[in-house]
Design goal:
5% strand, Cyt_P450_E_grp-I, 3-stranded mixed β-sheet, 4-stranded mixed β-sheet, oxidoreductase activity, acting on paired donors, with incorporation or reduction of molecular oxygen, reduced flavin or flavoprotein as one donor, and incorporation of one atom of oxygen, single chain, Cyt_P450, globular
């Protein structure tokens, strides 16, 4: 037997990188590879973590409890699907607010995913403009971003003793951000304690509190404490938000990039679910092409490219001896892109997961998006449900990708309509430009375009008025003498002043009360339309 000569040293640690599906499968099926490094990034920000920590007994106990709790709360059952569908419908309403305009999907999607976790953990979901939800989303994003800044900590654990490096790597900032989340979750915990009813279980917190109560006086060394509950909640949010958000984002982008695949999925949805109907998770077994597309997405864009393990005993793998205390990096990206297992792995081909007749899904033993063994991701079921149901709710949606497709579609009269429900139509019910009344739009658009032309749009007169406003805007910039300035603040009223010149026949000075009133309320109205559900 040989010592693992192909190991490397990253920082002060011995590391073995597992390449190839066979090596990964052999290793991760052995109990010796079930450990976690004793100095992981998530252990630093969440010291009591059971899921990302090195305490095997604690991990085994808490994982079993969490899995059973999620099952009791309805994972893979109708109740959880209903919660997910409710959140998807709210997410769709947010998309409608933009009326086809560009949108950063990640911001809206991340909040939607975290709300599904809120339903499981807190027994309730929050509206998009709820202060608690905004606080949670903002601080969860900050906490997630901080993880990448301190990732080197797991390879150089001694840097925590050097004050300069702690500041340079934002280690202390990361800890503070997680403490903010922990305090927020503790408030929810305190509220649950006051309203706990053993006959009416609402969520994961209730289940944990009852488990804690049942162990009082019986187990002096119990791990069922408030601090452990808070640590588990942190793990559920951190482990369940980012990866699932990234997966759904890649799914949306992939559907835009491959319209032929998107078309096949839409057709399968229409045939199995029915037009205008909401999908349910049980439909997935009758929709092999959609299921295969989800699987191919998770192979093609492997979100968790590396899984970090730690040998808890001396072990041999593929003829190599690996000593106890070695960091193991399982390279799932390599397993998913190895030409020995996958034909043309660089291409997005859902058909690779289908039988020859295309009627059933065929899984490969080299497909491992949720890791392998007993340390695999406990949220696999939840991920499949959310990925499948985000057909975009009960609405049939086609994403146009590519200049030619967009030009062809938007030149056809069949594409001139607006959705029957959108934010601007609610705020301004008579709106001809953003409403669905096609005849009103056609009439008013013709009239407005002719009026703008009569008022000098495209002629010297309007150019002079615009230049006058530009000069005023430049003076505002000069008044700051090169100091930092939020350009949006003077730019927005400057733009509205050009419209004032066309509509009211006059422009307003910057300190005019009428102008200030208009600008303030116009900004409030614009912001409210973005938040409106």
């Amino acid at each position: 037997m040989r010592l693992a000569s192909e190991s490397i040293r990253l920082g002060s640690q011995n590391v073995v990188v597992l390449h190839g599906g066979d090596a990964i499968r052999e290793a991760l099926s052995k109990p010796e590879f079930m450990g976690r490094p004793p100095f992981g990034t998530l252990q630093f920000t969440n010291p009591l973590t059971a899921f990302f920590g090195d305490n095997m007994l604690l991990w085994k106990e808490q994982r079993r409890f969490v899995m059973k709790s999620l099952k009791n709360l309805g994972i893979r059952k109708t109740k959880f699907e209903e919660d997910v569908m409710a959140e998807i419908n709210n997410f769709l309403e947010v998309l409608k607010l933009y009326n086809g305009q560009p949108i950063d999907l990640k911001t809206a999607l991340q909040a939607s995913i975290s709300n599904n976790i809120c339903a499981l953990v807190f027994g309730k979901r929050f509206e998009c403009n709820d202060p608690k939800r905004l606080f949670l989303d903002q601080n969860l994003e900050k906490a997630m971003n901080s993880l990448s800044m301190i990732s080197s900590y797991s390879l150089f654990p001694w840097i925590r003793h050097i004050p300069f490096f702690q500041r340079f790597l934002s280690i202390e900032i990361s800890r503070i951000r997680y403490d903010v989340l922990r305090k927020h979750f503790r408030k929810e915990l305190d509220e649950h304690k006051k309203s706990l009813d053993p006959k009416h279980i609402r969520d994961y917190i209730d289940i944990f509190l009852l488990a804690t109560e049942s162990r009082k006086g019986k187990d002096l060394n119990t791990n069922f404490t408030d601090d452990m509950l808070l640590a588990n909640i942190l793990d559920l949010f951190v482990g369940g938000s980012e990866t699932l958000t990234s997966s759904i984002l890649w799914f949306v982008y992939s559907m835009a990039a491959f319209p032929d695949i998107q078309k096949k999925i839409v057709q399968e949805i229409i045939e199995i679910v029915g037009p205008g109907e909401s999908p349910e998770f049980h439909h997935m077994k009758y929709m092999p092409y959609t299921y295969a597309t989800i699987m191919e997405l998770m192979r093609w864009k492997t979100i968790a490219a590396l899984d970090k393990r730690y040998t808890v005993a001396d072990v041999s793998i593929n003829g190599y001896n690996i000593p106890k205390g070695t960091i193991i990096l399982a390279n799932f990206w390599n397993a998913h892109n190895d030409s020995r297992y996958w034909f043309e792995p660089e291409k997005f081909k859902p058909e690779r997961f289908l039988s020859k007749d295309g009627k059933s899904v065929v899984k490969s033993k080299y497909y491992m998006p949720f890791s392998l063994g007993k340390r695999n991701c406990p949220g696999e079921s939840m991920a499949y449900i959310e990925l499948f149901l985000v057909k975009l709710g009960s609405q049939n949606i086609v994403v146009l990708h590519g200049t030619e497709a967009i030009r062809e579609a938007f030149n056809k009269t069949e594409f001139l309509g607006r959705p029957p429900s959108n934010s601007l139509e609610r705020i301004n019910p008579y709106s001809p430009f953003f409403g669905r009344d096609f005849h009103a739009w056609k009439e008013q658009r013709r009239f407005v375009v002719q009026s703008m032309k009569d008022l000098g749009l495209g002629k010297t007169k309007i150019e002079d008025e615009v230049m006058d406003e530009v000069n005023h805007f430049v003076k505002v910039l000069k008044s700051h003498s090169g100091q930092p300035i939020d350009v949006k603040k003077p730019l927005s009223p400057s733009m509205s002043n050009n419209i004032s010149a066309l509509v009211f026949g006059k422009r307003y000075d910057y300190d005019n009360p009428d102008r200030q009133f208009l600008d303030e309320n116009l900004e409030k109205r614009t912001n409210s339309s973005v938040r409106l559900l």
